Amino acid sequence: MRTTESITRLYLAPSLCQRLKAMVCTGYPEETCGLLVGRQSSLRVQVWDLVQARNLNRERARDRYELDPRDFVATDAMARRQAMDIVGIWHSHPDHPARPSVTDQAAAWEGWSYVIASVSRKDIEDLRSWHLFEDGFTEEVIEYDW
Amino acid sequence: MIGRVTVRIPTPLRSLTQGADEVLVPGATVGEVLHGLDDSLLQRILTPEREMRQFVNIYLGPKNVSTLDGLATPVKEGDVLSIIPAVAGGNPGQEKDRWLQELRRRIPAVTPREALALQRRGALLPDTGERYASTGMWGQRAEQ
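Structure tokens for the assembled complex are given below, as produced in the milestone run.
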């Protein structure tokens, strides 16, 4: 169990939340995915932009995603030009909770934030962010108002 | 003359470069440049057999080196190599739902009397608490 002082906080402006909502709702019932661009310090992840990426897994697009590395390369170059970084990944879980799956954990990298949106036919049902440590995922606090 | 190539390091691997987001490494091919990296970083990119790991891609500018000549792809002064972590995942929910449906289909429905008869013959019947009021059956949902 992590103490409050060791939990990372993800700062996500309301305007970015609205964009995320539009992207995951438009993509429903398929999974949508993309990258978080911003700046990261030890316990603070500040998101300045969200970029949607192509899902290369077309056969199982409803329950799998495989982010197109070409979108990663292009976003990374754009972020570096603005003195920023790719600080995490976002993806949707259509009709399922906003919690990392075993599949998510198997493919995750330490050091990034993983924002997961639970989405239904009607709307975003839940939005949570997770950070992978050696002992598994820990939920981050999302700060919307800053 | 061997040129120096910029290698871009993604955030998750920067603990292996003392936080540096890129490093300059000399080399005439992609393989030579990668072998100029710190061992701990190299191990995250190549297998002990010196093949590219499944969960990492190397891009030379905008091109995946696996579509060029792989580790033998020539590089020159000023080129940029990017280490790209494979990003994937997914929702196991539908898979789990399908598995549960199949499992439930395989479990036969038994009445309490049949369950007791089976137990007398040595069967172990764990009580899952799933009794369906409409049928009095245990196990499979008869109304499905």
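Chain A has a mean pLDDT of 90. Chain A touches chain B at residues 31, 33, 40, 57, 60, 62-67, 69-70, 72-74, 76, 80, 85-87, 89, 91, 93-96, 100-104, 107-112, 114 (CB under 8 Å). Further analysis is deferred to the final report.
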